[in-house]
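job 3f2a | input accepted
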Amino acid sequence: MITQASSCRLFSAPSSTLVPINKLAVKALQMMHALVFVGAALATGVLQAAGPAKVAVADLAKGQAVASAVCVACHAADGNSAISMYPILAGQHAAYLAKQLHNYQVKPGAAGAERANAIMAGFAATLSEDDIRNVAAYYSAQSIKPAYSKDKALTEKGQRIYRAGIPAQGVPACAGCHGPNGSGIPSQYPRLSGQHADYAAATLAAFKSGERANSGQMMAIAKGMNDVDMKAVAEYLAGLR
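job 3f2a | predicted structure (241 res):
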């Protein structure tokens, strides 16, 4: 057993032995500081030479060209689809549109797309990163020509669900994420105001069934809604401003 006293003796040494060790340590530290200084200087020089990282900027003209060539038949050239089963894209957040287009694409090594849709998969597969960025920005910059609600009773029910949710069924208020006026949050939650009721209802049903599975949050929420609930919310969204 080593006592405290003996342990002290084990790690002690005559002063004549410590002096050269301390000098070597000081020299080593000086060399390390010099190397760090040189390294920092070199790194700074490289960063200055390289300049700030370039951020890709969307080209709206090119985005319009993609929209006119690829998207126009279903979504219209300006994103205001006249077909109620296809979403209005005008005024939608660019980040959300880009995410959906990426989700339609089958990534290398994946068994399928994150958002399965036979029609959109074919179109999305032809788009490059630049195409997606450009067309998303183009549609986002367009002015929406909103849909409108048609059923007063259904709209009133939808308003109650949108604002307060259905606590008994575990459905939170839609306004909590999409905002009181349905404007959403860029890059997080889509704009819903003025969307076609038919498309919105079909989307909620797809989330509930698992046909659309690129949002676990929405899949869980939709499971707590029945058909009337979904149609009511969709009807309210069409007239929401």
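job 3f2a | Residues 79 and 90 are 4 Å apart (CA to CA).
job 3f2a | closed
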